[in-house]
Structure formats: structure tokens, C-alpha cells
Amino acid sequence: MTAPALHLTVYGTPAPQGSKNRNAAGALYESSAKVRPWRQDVKTAALDALLHDEAWVALSGAVWLDVQFSLRRPKHHFGTGKNAGLLKASAPPYPTGTPDLDKLVRSTQDALKDAGVLADDSVVATLSASKVYVLWGDSLRTPGAVIKVWRLTDFLKEPTP
Does 72 reside within a domain? Predict the structure, then answer.
């Protein structure tokens, strides 16, 4: 399989980018205070990954974006007292509540655009995204995301079996 054009790991708390709200003066602001730090974490990780690639140009052709978000489990998933720190049998294996996956992707795509990875959000022609809890399967050990970006034209160059 073709190697991704960019593969990076972002550490931080993934935050959804939802609708903007207006204050009394009519100015727009993000609905979540966690969006700005998350977007900055993604941008910093992307810029660090691109630091040694002086020839990098923001991707303007069709790309495949693959993102796995690792989220911290809520405290109520764990026991108390003598069972403190132990996962309850009733704890769900996958996150099914907030944040919404599509809104996590939205904030991450915007940060990748700000970092110069993508020329625009619209170049994402194929998207695969998931959210898992930390320490579940091959997920991260702390909250964050693993992001891979492929140029779709690279797959056209692969020989067919």
C-alpha cells in the first residue's frame, strides 16, 4: 500500500467545532472553549511533522483523510472504593456520546488547513474517522489523534494484481 503523504500523532483533548454563537454585541465566538487549544495542538503537530520537508506544498488535489480520535473515559466508567480505577463491566467499549465525530473532524480539518497541510477542506474526497477510548486496542495512551493523509493520485500509480 502507498505510504501516506503525512502521518502525525497529536496529543491533547480532541474538541468538536460546532456552530458559532453570538454575544450581546453580535460578535461571533466558538461554542466550545476547547476548540482553540485542540486546533492549536493539531496545527503544531502538523507544522512539526512538516518542519524537515522544505518542498511541502499544501495538498490541493484529492486526498484521503484518516483520523482516529482517542478520548478519555468518563469517571463514571470506573468503580469506586476498593474498585477505584477498575473499569466497570457495564462501561461501553466505544464512545457513543458527545463529542460528535463529524464535529471533531471539522475542527481537525480546519487546523490542517491552517497548518498548510490542506489547501482547503474541500480537497478531502475520502474520509475515514473513528473515536475510541484511550488504551483501547491500538489507540493512544493519552487523549489525542492519529492522523494520516494520502494523495489519492498515488493510488492510481500502484500496479494492479
Answer: yes
Nearest CA among 41, 65, 47, 70 for reference residue 142: 70
Provide the number of structural domains found in the chain.
1
Strands 144-151 and 28-30: unpaired
Q: Is residue 1 part of a domain?
A: no
121 contact partners, CB below 8 Å, separation of at least 6: 109, 110, 113
Backbone Cα Rg of the chain? 18
User: Could you list the residue range(s) of the whole structural domain that residue 143 is in?
Assistant: 6-155
Residue 159 pLDDT more than 70?
no
Question: Three cell numbers at 79?
Answer: 468503580
pTM reported for the whole predicted model: 0.86
Residue 57: which residues within 8 A CB-CB, separation 6 or more? none
